[in-house]
Amino acid sequence: MSPAQSSPAEAEESYDVVVVGAGFAGMYMLYRLRGLGFSARVYEQGDGVGGTWYWNRYPGARCDVESMQYSYSFSDELQQEWDWSERYAPQAEILKYANHVADRFDLRRDIQFNTRVERAVFDEQAKRWSVTVSDGRTVQAQFVVLATGCLSNARKPDIEGLENFGGSVYHTGSWPHEDVDFTGLRVGLIGTGSSGIQSAPIIAEQAKHLTVFQRTANFSIPARNAALTTGERDAFRKSYPEIRRFAREVARNGIYAEQPDRGALDDSDETRRGKYEKRWDRGGLTFMYVYNNLGLDRTANDTAADFVRGKIAEIVKDPATAKLLQPNSHPIGTKRICIDTDYFATFNRPNVSLVDIKTNPIQEITANAVRVAGRNHEVDALVLATGFDAMTGSVAKIDIRGPGGQTLNQKWAEGPKTYLGLMSAGFPNLFIIAGPGSPSVLSNMIVSIEQHVDWIADCLTHMREHGLAALEADSNAEEKWVAHVNEVAQGTLYPQANSWYMGANIPGKPRIFMPYIGGVGAYRRICDEVAAKGYEGFVMEAEAQPRRAMSG
Ligand code: NA7
Questions:
Q1: Do 87 and 188 have their domain in common?
Q2: Which of 130, 215, 346, 360 lies deepest, with the highest CB count within 10 Å?
Q3: Which of 70, 175, 195, 384 should be mutated for ligand 1, with most atoms under 8 A from CB?
Q4: What is the pLDDT of residue 12?
Q5: Does 192 sit in the ligand 1 pocket, CB within 6 Å?
Q6: For position 109, what pLDDT does the model report?
């Protein structure tokens, strides 16, 4: 399996592996493939690396996992040398890091930018994929790896009249590369997920007036972001071996943090309140790990939700606005909890107003206003922080056809089905990184990405060593895995929220809890065990005859 092993008559361009996307997953996949001597081509629709961090350039965009942990672990030199400036890295710094990695490991020469993968068709005879890209070329590859990202297909909402709006319309997930200046403008912000919550305070500082249109109030915890000191960075670096091991093997979500040892109802009201206060003051996602049953038991969950609702009431001066901002439609944490800097306090500004579009949905967008309950809210610019067709959206944009012509979209019409989140039965030699059925978005993405990439790299090496032409998920193994993913999710409070985890933000998308909630450590052990048992649950096919070497 190397380019030299393909016959020149087979195709103009032929690779062992085509990788779709040059975000963190695609870059590390390329690095591993190269190291193992596989030929690979990466296609990336943007004109640079970084994936999510390339597109999401909206004001205030930051990762909600701490920078020292939201970083690659595969190169100790890299993690020892790179200086993160803040506890939570801003988008521009993460993008700089992605570019540094691309340069440092000389990745760009195998990445073709400004190129979308449009179609991939499996040739049953050759046991190879024909991959058609947006420049019109078709290349051949034995394997395709979808490193397409989980939050990469930005969705414009289907709101009447949006196309008639006369001012500028921005989507947080595909923000312009040049600076956007809202000075002196009346800005309408639709959406109060993480992107809306991060951008509102910054836009409010610039704009003449900011009107936030809120469908679902969200739980948000202060980030308490701050510059990292040299001492903090050094302490982390010294402990990296243990921190990374813990994140991979112990922490459910791939984040090194103090783990809860008891349930919320095991403590008295006073003790519990004290613990919540401490976590609130510390800030960050780990608020949810104060107890081990917040995602499982509604009564326990209510104690944390009530605490945060209380904080919102303390911060927001106008009682009616505070009430509207208090989430009451879902248990805390069942939609990804947000991490903010002064989000709730932003509503105390005289130039910020909140409009409830749950009770009265937006009727229409006109040339200069958003109409709600018969009232026109005049705006000069619109920011859509309306999220993504998550987890499956970017895969669905590619016309993927397996043996017999079945498309992946047809197969996933009732919801995505995968074995281990890595492959879907009926689509040989097609891997997905951090796809549905794997911990993915419920975890520190880089931990999950590295685990998937390493597993795939080992699998391809195994195939090469054993002269295997094709590998496919067995449909029974897949059914069992899908049932397991569902069963684990149903044992939690997560399915109670209309979240993008459930596909609920996209009209018509099947309601299925997509990520695997069993924890990254347990999941890793399952994947390793499957490999150790000779790729149990996968069907393999040997090379019909050894491929002829091109030269010699
Ligand atoms: P999210 O979390 O999906 O948030 C999208 C927001 O936009 C949310 O408040 C939605 O309300 C709202 N929305 C979506 N469609 C509409 C329409 N049609 N009308 C009004 N409001 C709408 O996306 P983000 O970009 O903020 O964050 C995605 C992830 O990135 C985040 O979880 C972090 O992991 C990082 P809804 O809640 O559906 O009622």
A1: no
A2: 346
A3: 195
A4: 72
A5: yes
A6: 98
- SS3 state at 137: coil
386 in contact with ligand 1, CB cutoff 6 A: yes
CATH (domain of 473): 3.50.50.60
> Which residues, given as ranges, of the chain have pLDDT below 50?
2-11, 547-552
Residue 543, pLDDT score: 84
What's the pLDDT tens digit per position in 330-346? 999 999 999 999 999 99
Quick one: pLDDT at residue 2?
46
Per-residue model confidence (pLDDT) at position 545: 59
User: Could you give the number of structural domains in the chain?
Assistant: 2
126 and 165, same structural domain? no
Residues 400 and 494 in one domain: yes
* Long-range CB contact pairs, 97-103, < 8 A, 24+: 97/71, 98/23, 98/24, 98/27, 98/49, 98/50, 98/51, 98/53, 98/54, 99/48, 99/49, 99/50, 101/27, 101/49, 101/72, 102/22, 102/27, 102/49
89's tokens: 């890295």
Looking at residue 61, its pLDDT comes to 97
Q: For residues 486 and 495, what is the distance between their CA atoms, to the nearest angstrom?
A: 10
Instruction: Concatenate the DSSP letters of all residues of 147-208 into one string.
Output: ---SS-SB-----TTGGG--SEEEEGGG--SS----BT-EEEEE--SHHHHHHHHHHHHHBS
Is residue 216 within 6 Å of ligand 1 at its C-beta? Answer: yes
Alpha-carbon span 476 to 519, nearest angstrom: 23
Q: Which of 312, 332, 331, 311 is closest to 322 using CA atoms?
A: 312
Inter-axis angle of helices 445-465 and 240-249, nearest 10 = 80
Shared-domain flag, residues 95 and 192:
no
